[in-house]
Amino acid sequence: MKRKxxxxxxxxxxxxxxxxxxxxxxxxxxxxxxxxxxxxxxxLEVWVPPLDDDxxxxxxxLMTDWEEENGCKVNITVVPWDKYEETYTTALNSGEGxxxxxxxxxxxxxxxxxxVVADMSEYITDEDKSEYKYLENxxxxxxxxxxxLVTGVxxxxxxxxxxxxxxxxxxxETWEDFERICKxxxxxxxxxxxxxxxxxxxxxxxxxxxxxxxxxxxxxSALWQNGGQxxxxxxxxxxxxxxxxxxxxxxxxxxxxxxxxxFMSMSWSDAFANVFGAGKAAFGVYxxxxxxxxxxxxxxxxxxxxxxxxxxxxxxxxxxxTDCLTLMSAAEDKELAMNFIKHVTGAEFMEKYHAKCPxxxxxxSEPYVGDAKMEKIYTDDLGKWHGLQVGPCGxxxxxxxxxxxxxxxxxxxxVEEGLKEAEDYANNLLEEYWAEKE
Amino acid sequence: MELVKKGFKxxxxxxxxxxxxxxxxxPFIYMFLMSFKSTINAYDFDFSLEKLSLGQYEKxxxxxxxxxxxxxxxxxxxxxxxxxxxxxxxxxxxxxxxNFKGNDKIFLFLVMTMVVPSEVIVIPLFLITKGLGWLNxxxxxxxxxxxxxxxxxxxxxxxxxxKDLMDAARIDGCGNLKxxxxxVLPLVKSSILALSIFTFVGAWNNFLWPLVACxxxxxxxxxxxxxxxxxxxxxxxxxxxxxxxxxxxxxxxxYVFMQSRFKEGMTLSGVKG
Amino acid sequence: MENKKGGAGKLAPYCYIAPITLILxxxxxGSVAVSVALGFTKYNIMTEPVFRGIDNYSKLMSxxxxxxxxxxxxxxxxxxxxxxxxxxxxxxxFLVANRKRFLGKLANSMIFIPVICSPAVVGVxxxxxxxxxxxxIEKFFGLFGIEPSMLLGDAKTALITVGMVAVWKWMGYYVxxxxxxxxxxxxxxxxxxxxxxxxxxxxxxxxxxxxxxPTIILGVFLSVTNSLQCFDLIFNLTGGGPxxxxxxLVVYSYSKCFSAGAAGYAMAISNILFVVILAVAMxxxxxxxxxxxxx
Lengths: 438, 273, 295
Fold this sequence. Notes:
- The structure holds 3 protein chains of 3 kinds.
- Chain A is an alpha/beta fold.
- Chain A folds into 2 domains: 41-151 and 321-386, D-Maltodextrin-Binding Protein, domain 2, CATH 3.40.190; 155-319 and 392-437, Periplasmic binding protein-like II (D-Maltodextrin-Binding Protein, domain 2), CATH 3.40.190.
- Chain A has 17 helices and 13 strands.
- In chain A, the strands form 5 sheets. In chain A, strands 8-9-7-10 form a 4-stranded mixed beta sheet. A 3-stranded antiparallel beta sheet of chain A has the order 3-12-6. Chain A has a two-stranded parallel ribbon with strand order 1-2.
- In chain A, β4 and β5 (143-144) form a beta hairpin.
- In chain A, α10 (212-225) crosses α11 (243-254), α10 crosses α16 and α16 packs antiparallel against α17.
- Chain A starts with a helix and ends with a helix.
- By secondary structure, chain B is mainly alpha-helical.
- Chain B has one domain: MetI-like fold (Orthogonal Bundle), CATH 1.10.3720.
- Helices cover 67% and strands 0% of the residues of chain B.
- Chain B contains 13 helices and no strands.
- Chain B has helices at residues 2-34, 55-61, 66-97, 103-111, 122-132, 138-142, 148-159, 163-171, 176-187, 189-205, 208-213, 222-227, 237-261.
- In chain C, α3 packs parallel to α9 and α9 crosses α11 (200-227).
- By secondary structure, chain C is mainly α.
- The longest helix of chain C has 34 residues, at 64-97.
- Chain C has one domain: MetI-like fold.
- In chain C, β1 (41-42) and β2 form a beta hairpin.
- Chains in contact: A-B, A-C, B-C.
- At the A-B interface, α1, α2, α5, α12 and α13 of A face α3, α5, α6, α9 and α11 of B.
């Protein structure tokens, strides 16, 4: 009897140790690849999201010269957009984060506060300041925490040339133009009693794209064009519920009657494809680079299109993200990391990269390679688009604002109610935040 | 008259069955068809078979280290199934057939762990795993897989094993363990099958936990690797669907394979009146 | 059954249950314990947690989103559980009756396929199907007077749509459970009933259902716990919107955990969720329990 039960115990133990034994693989590898641990070749851990179809090869392939020059191997890890922050927070918790990271504006406040990104100001030379066009966009919360990498792709207002022609209209410039065209365009074109053409193709669902995107696509443009902003200048309170902000929100709400009725179910990109792309709307919003000549030709061959970077009410304004490379505080060789960052955003590297995967030029030395139609975004219209104010509790405040925005658009809340709820929430958070700072 | 009635009943049954089949799988037909299209957006979908291409699949298979990711997923899922079946059937056996102090209480306690949703304990689980030093290891992915549900199923199934058979084996001189292997397990095969399939599917589709538990690229599982292909603003539905199909196939194959090996199919014995 | 011989035998059962108990205690109970502890802190995962007492819980009391999420969670459960149970029992009866025929076997296999697919993909696919303006889908929904692309965007229908998709997805799972139960009912009962002159419907209500009761108790228990844990499905169908109309406690806790750097608060929410699920599960068990040997 004893033997039999002992053998049972043995078996269980064996099974468990077999499983646990398999775990050693991962751990041994962990030991061996600490960056800059002094044994032979240096390595630089770089984390970027999918910048294109095959980031590791597209980027990695261009790195060999730099790697040789600096005696360093660059390990590029692609972090999926799905659960992006989850990857970062847990990795930083366990000390497994990268040397060079990639963050978007809304993310920064949390990470700056946690002290995991380093201020790059000391590494910037005067030369850098004149060469790198968008450096300012990476300066936030009193430090150069971001070095712009992907930018220059603002959300712009596309319009259907044919529909506008039929209405005898030119490209809109003001809110009045826009409203007038929308109103005239929203009608029943095939006589079946149902409106099937709309003024403004919109999609305000946050599924799959996240809460920020509906603000990016539709809200900031209205807010900024009316002279409003998210934070007050001192970043201690919310400013989006003031008079300008309320007017802007009301204006968007009024546009509802010219939108496709199912706008709450789709994301902004789906709405663009489904409604505007199908030729069923006069206007649609999309980012400027994704729909260049070739994409349009392939996916929406029947649509004659053009675009307006930004309307103007009191001012111009539309959202253009600036995603940045970051120098992580845990990086061992910061000089090396900075060298990498500057190289990778510099003209030499970017020209080759952009030839494969088009994007906006980050430096003055780099020529513009892209769709000719879009070039004005970087020249005449450069001042019409910009990124967000970076302020404390950004994501939290904006998520609440996004939810209230949805509530206002569905009619669940009035503009005043929605804005008040978001404002109170924001102010509470900010109060707490600044109180803790003292 | 009887024959006509029976025939009529059969036709109605057939229609209903076909209805069930269609309702169950039509979204997958969509998924499958879309994966062959190389459109940037999904809305020129029609059932037309033109413009089909393997382009998306090529892109996916060309991914570096693709074999490694598949291996990881398969390894974790298979080991997970083995581990789960082993520990749950052993425990189920004890709860069902052995008299010991605390049998009911401990069982109830374990079953209560079923109320914990996996997404909200990700951070605590991460901290525990970190504390054990098991991050970036297969251990971390496999060991949390067994659940109390498995114990519940096995206990139910084993409760059903007739006492006489066990007594007979005992008279023949078999100890507990031998009875377990020779008498009990063969009788609960269909429950084991069900448990295997549930566990495999669960392990395979895990996204959040492998993401958080493993930062090293070589430890990534297939769902993670596939999500690396999705760029931020290009909603290339064709690519998404191709990734979905590839992720869907292994559990599907496992399911079909296991179903064919077990004639009676997946049933939970002991779950009865 | 006395099968113990001496001291060694007494320990044997504990060895059998040791592995799973160890696993569950370490990972699940351990996680709950950590979650309870973190619920009293302010934590952003990257730096050390800061003790804050019952701050999080008092904030929760006045958090309208929390109340909304709680309401949605319970609503979703009340929507999913009855529908799932009734529908799966009916389908199981039908499929078991037809299990010898080819189409029956095929349907039995096919119905399990949605279970195999990951919830995230199911969410994406259904979202595309509902919003995509496909003529087939529009006509089908049109028969019921519904316009499919309005479903996910309307605060009133968003949650219901999520529930429907969840019921669709898990149908195969519950059919396995109930079919097993049905197959376990010995034919003698039916024969006896027929002798007494009962027709099919009478048989179902007087023989099948009562004998299926233990299975139903299990099925409902599983349905309750599963419906309260829906996550990926919701995220991909509606993102929790519009304006949190389809945000459940799991979704809310998760969003607080990672994207707002308020992991401590998220833990507090999940702790309350644990209590809710436990309470509901116990309630359900007491309400339905008649036989001692089942859950």
